[in-house]
Amino acid sequence: ALAAPAVAQSAPQIKWRIASSFPKSLDTLYGGAEVFAKAISEMTDGAFTAQISPAGELAPGLQAADAVARGRADACHTSSAYYLDKDPAFALGAATPFGPNARQTNAWLRSGGAEMLDELYARFDLVGLACGNTGAQMGGWFRKDVNAVGDLQGLKIRVSGLGAQVFAKLGAAPQPLGGGDVYPALEKGEIDAAEWIGPYDDQKLGLYQVAKNYYYPGWQAGGPSVQLLIGKAKWEALPARYKAIATGAAAIANETMLARYDAQNPRALRELVAAGVKLKPYPKDVMEAAYKASQEVYAELYQKSPAFKKIHEAQAAFRNEDVLWFRVAELPFDVFMAQMQSRG
Amino acid sequence: ALAAPAVAQSAPQIKWRIASSFPKSLDTLYGGAEVFAKAISEMTDGAFTAQISPAGELAPGLQAADAVARGRADACHTSSAYYLDKDPAFALGAATPFGPNARQTNAWLRSGGAEMLDELYARFDLVGLACGNTGAQMGGWFRKDVNAVGDLQGLKIRVSGLGAQVFAKLGAAPQPLGGGDVYPALEKGEIDAAEWIGPYDDQKLGLYQVAKNYYYPGWQAGGPSVQLLIGKAKWEALPARYKAIATGAAAIANETMLARYDAQNPRALRELVAAGVKLKPYPKDVMEAAYKASQEVYAELYQKSPAFKKIHEAQAAFRNEDVLWFRVAELPFDVFMAQMQSRG
């Protein structure tokens, strides 16, 4: 290294308040903001820090972005899919039924996707950074078998985001419930089914004790991105160096959350199966009907939201290209490894 | 934000020399170091920078780590699989036949894998940061069809890393050739086949002009990680803040390289197919024979290198758990999306 004398740099002391959409008990999701906060502090010797508030402290979890709008927080760590009432295009920052998987999402974000989303977010005085991903989720917990699409008729299912609109087209009755309300509703039979996240988080909610059938895959969320949505004025007030540091910290958090899920889900899945959970693939006709219904939902959203149309068309075109490529190299490799393992 | 008066922080001026193992023409691989260098500079307002030298300038590409050992570079951006002569365990930092895919590699690195590799690297006065990934590679270019494992008998194939040892067990005659030598050797018939990377990079080498059969998947490299190997003394001389910044910059580069491959490979694949390339899956018996041979190679390496045994056992155990989990959520989702797309 060529070392020259150190220079003195001005380091503004900035402490962000981050409103998390998640409770501390969902440690992997909540931890995304903690990883981000630790990284910005380490990268600035404590000059740029963040204090994280769990869901409910500055705002209800599903309204964390409103804490930013009201100036109670500088940023929120959240799922943009919670804000469909602002514009349905917010779903495209997080997850859409039959959308890109986690890796395709990251690739799209770094290929112009992030800029398209920031145009949307700017209308609400927000700036976004991808700050975590859960990987493909599970389909959910069902009290009774789902043998055909007809079994969804009248089914009360807890499901969030655009997945709810797809389930509605299939004849189900989607119920919006927060995490804490899912177990009691399922236990009392007020709902028949519930999707949540995946084995590690689902195990914590204890849903397997009241619904034994665990369906896969989670077509409603094939690779959901978790966002840091930052107040635009707060972002613009950062020195350029801190913006770069926040970007690097978000990249660490983005990869770390997915890595933690990939490390934690296998054991949870084993334990769930040992506890009597019945793992079942969605029947083919359910998958195909849901796919078809999702296309109808998208066609309707194209009419309602020009932003949804513009961003979804770009994202779907990118995803289609990647699916083509994954059919050649990634999938045959992964499928072969799965076959070798299933032989024991 | 709670803003307090800015403090003055001492910012040492540090300029690293990074020896790349790659030529500038392989812009996605080479670009990993450029993304890293841009990020550290932006995060320090230009106090911590890096100058990158392409393969051949400070050391031959396959010996970039030696430039670090000899003090000609502070770090190298390379594939640790180039240094099997130091210890075969170096392969585990990059890619092994039938090893983890890109996402599983990242998850393992962040679940104790990076620390295990750093123990290995420390024996050679190096510290490692994951700084890119190509995703699953292609099997390679073959002048003649491969219909059965017997067709590999005596086949002269350009292949690097542990994949070469597996091909040797299958009766082939692996040839170590640098990137620039592959096309002429294949054109003159000095070799019969060559694996390189994937559509985007392979297209640049023009291999399709002299070998039309393009086999998949690249079982020799299902998700190769690219490393920044840093001189241990240079790393330890960094202020804690710069270490955190380098870690963040590497995370950006790690994700960006994979994203670029995922964005660029689909178009290159289309163009190759339009140019008459014949895409072919490896026959099942070739895949299974290669898998079996890889297990034999690993058993032999366990005898030769305690580090290989220790790290490979840990990596394989993690990978096996992830493959189990991917069989439930990720793969069925990805396979369904591929099926929908193949219907057009």
TrEMBL record, chains A, B:
Residues where substrate binds: Q137, R158, E195
GO molecular-function terms, A-Z: metal ion binding
Keyword Metal-binding on entry: yes
GO biological process, one term: transmembrane transport
Alphabetized InterPro entries for the sequence: DctP_fam (IPR018389), SBP_TakP-like (IPR026289), TAT_signal (IPR006311), TRAP_DctP_sf (IPR038404)
Domain of life: Bacteria
Residues binding Na(+): W196
NCBIfam families given in the database record: TRAP_S1
PANTHER family: EXTRACYTOPLASMIC SOLUTE RECEPTOR PROTEIN, PTHR33376
Name of the protein in question: ABC transporter substrate-binding protein
Species assigned in the record: Hansschlegelia plantiphila
